[in-house]
Amino acid sequence: MSTPARRRLMRDFKRLQEDPPTGVSGAPTDNNIMIWNAVIFGPHDTPFEDGTFKLTIEFTEEYPNKPPTVRFVSKMFHPNVYADGGICLDILQNRWSPTYDVSAILTSIQSLLSDPNPNSPANSMAAQLYKENRREYEKRVKACVEQSFSLLDEPNPNSPANSLAAQLYQENKREYEKRVATVVEQSWLNFQESHTEDPR
To answer: What EC number(s) are associated with this protein in UniProt (predicted)?
Structure first.
């Protein structure tokens, strides 16, 4: 079934492929264009640098008139991220506009990692540490960064957790980012194989 929301999401994905923003990636899940997987790379010169953070984006048929629900799947320690991964961001709430697309959503969240707003906290502990004890705040963020490497690892009880991703990042960053993009975009390939509706 082709609907305005689904056609718009197809356009969003096409734009994301043709003009990809730096440091973000996203694609529909295997058989549902209304649910997306996404990845945000931690911005440079922030405590989140080197991290690879997974998110889910859930749309309704009211998109783009109403914003999607966006959550971090990866563990996060950030003043504006709730314990369940929900994100306190104005464009996902009272300042949403139908002109925003998936690319704008992901880049806005990436900017939030660079510039938290501790005065509107979703995580009061993170907000307090960000303002009063930056060293402890950054220590906790770094722990999340290390956990985020698990995106690329295959389960292997005989090897240390995150070893593949950590090694790739250190030795061949281009290959690392290529593999992360592949993890996300593989879901789009599966979606195309199982999806029969005409996107026009």
So the answer is: 2.3.2.23
